[in-house]
Amino acid sequence: MQMTLNGRPRTVITALLAPILLGAAPSLAAQSGVPRLERSDCPFERGERARAIQLECAWLVVPEMRDHPVGRTVRLAVAVVRAKNPTTTPLVMVHGGPGLSGLRIFLPFAASGAARTRDIVIYDQRGAGYSEPKLCPDYGAIEDSARRLRTTAERDKLWDVRDRACVASRAQGIDPAAYNTSASARDLIDLRKAMGYAMWDVFSTSYGARLAQEAMRQDPRGIRSVVMASPVTLGPARHSEVALSIQRAFERVWKECAAQASCNAAFPNVGDDFYALYDELSRNPLPASVTRDNGVVDTVWIDGKRLVSSIRNDILGRPGRLARLPLLVNELRRGDRARAAETLAGFDTNTGSTNQQVVIHLVNCYDIYGPAFRAARDSANALAHPAFRNDQLNDCPIWQTRFADPSEHKPVRSDIPTLILTGGFDDRTPTDQARRIAATLNHAYLYEFPNEGHDAPPAGCHLSILMQFFENPFQAPDASCIATIPPILFTTGWGERN
Question: What topology does CATH give the domain 2-132+175-236+406-484?
Fold first, then answer.
């Protein structure tokens, strides 16, 4: 599926057509005052790829409270891959989460040769990744214990205790209201100015696209073009509608199975089987043995909610695993249940401890929680099947006491050329929400990749369209390759190869 919105030339776009030549870009020299750049050693191992590139690292020092520039500051970790022959606009890469690390995610791309003609700037947002402050660094330490609990209610109780302990531990430290998208957009603007760039291109993924939209609103003259991959909307839609978004993604799998003769013959009632399985596991969770990456063998319990979350987090975005989903549902319902349960549980082998969730709580709660969100969420839950209903952001009063003004939820109106990329199996940021973002952008191109889930790594047709836009954001990419993408070929037996 592809759509181009209002792609006609406009005076403001024509004025931007001339490329910005960087010439000799300034190095990361010491600065004074706030905001400022402080050159530093890189906070990560460079790796073999990074040894062949010109890599500079620094801290961006900004006020914690954006409306009170005198006082506590925070430091954002920044890395710049310098172009060998800079002839075009620099690119900044904005990570998602919120709470992930752009430096971990994007540095391999920048080190792969993408920086031949432009500087590539990568950074971690406030409180995320290598940046400061470090918010409840032991927050993820209980995850192994939570995995072993039998029911969702038991896990929720343990997580609630952890949340309250985290909030109590930082009561005398950070101001939680300082962690929000508007503040992060101002950080991004300060980073551009501190780097000495008059304008740059923005690449953003997932939540990072929500930040990019806010930057488009606050810094329209500083942005030449924007890429939004699996974009999160401004306002409450992404979280309030998640029950229906999940249901539609699951139903698309069942529909695709029904459209394939072999899958339909083997699993003619896969949707009904899934709902029956959900009800059964909600009453009687199924044990499964799984060996973690560290060699520890755990027994985990698959109840109805864990079934849904495992499919969402570990299957939908991975075509190879997605091809086996109807088979797994069938086997859990009436076949080799032990093998299917161990396969499903084995997809999640993460044993790391992370504080990413703390940033997610702070930012999402500040940005979107309030009466409008609760009303929209309750309306979506009323329409959704019980398997997908949720209490998203019910714990926000624990994390925040102040919230964004509803005016910040208004969609961005802009002439900035924007490429929007979505996946057909995306249960988090579905294409219909991306259309709402595109509807108020005067120079937007929107493409859906039918075999992808949320925030898929660019390859093949996806990568081709992305690179065309990077080359010339003022011209619609040739997206004819989308029509050649084959559908997911579902497997019907354990011995079949994907």
Answer: Rossmann fold (3.40.50)
